[in-house]
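Entry 14. Ran structure prediction on the chain below.
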Amino acid sequence: MTDKIALEEHFITETLAPYAAGNQPTQDAAAFAVLRRRLADFGEGRLAAMDAAGIGYAVLSATVPGVQAEPDAAKAVALAQRANDELAEEVRKQPARYGGFAALPLQDPAAAGAELERAMRELGFHGAMINGHTHGQYLDEERLRPFWERADALAAPIYLHPCDPVGTPAMFAGRPELNGSVWAWTVEAATHALRLVLGGTLMRHPRVKIILGHMGETLPYVMARLDSRTRHSGREFAVEELPSAILRRQFWITTTGVCDPASLATAIANLGEDRVMFSVDYPYENGVEAAAFLASAPIPEAVRAKIGRGNAAGVLGLSYWKETGFTKKRSIKHPQQMLHQA
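Output, structure tokens:
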């Protein structure tokens, strides 16, 4: 039964391929060649992988670093528009199976906001995937306010994906094995998210929905510590609320790459059963393994259904998915019908 929704499922096009060349997740050239083929496939191979994992609907996003790697702002704007149009064309071919997260040219914050609105209102996308910082610029910086104002007006889901840190921090010096997805990406993504929490960005834009992959990039497991230290550090913060309150209100997480029952249990306990969503991280992770993990997790069936599809349906505005999954016939003519209603 294809009854699940997945939200961190990546693709690449010829337009984006040159930017991804420096972000190989494996040193094995043959293995990476297979990944590249899967990233570029919007047809039988991807659909077969979804079916094998019981995934009825996948939200596709450009693989890291996406358009954010382009140093020229004007080129980045044009690149984002083209990449989003290319994805929209693929979604139109399979509107019952695919949705999209937009690529955004954050090199130009106002243009990024305009492209987010175009992607959601005209192309029918569900929000955006942001691949970490943009040339060292983080999302809580003042220059990003025009983008956040547009995102807040749209009540946009924003999936914050990891990327490489700027340079190589001293704590990683001499230990290259700590780089990339082994550890550096987790530190980078969690810190980026906390900048949005503690810097007041999300307090000013309460309708924005932040999604973190990889079971929340460790944040669900340190919420008590964050609350304790913000209360007792003696420092001033831009927000009066405890970090845990903001995390529980404006954050959702996905299970990508963390098939561990203990981690899932803690995430549910600390964030709530309405804040955890299934995903795979295709093609970098195995969908069958991810599905088997969710199927066997020691949680009530009602919670399993929420994680598998219900929570994502709510975040994305897919009301017909919330109860029935992929088990009843639905009339879908165009991806704009799936637009999250702001």
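The first helix runs from residue 17 to 20. Will compare against last week's run tomorrow.
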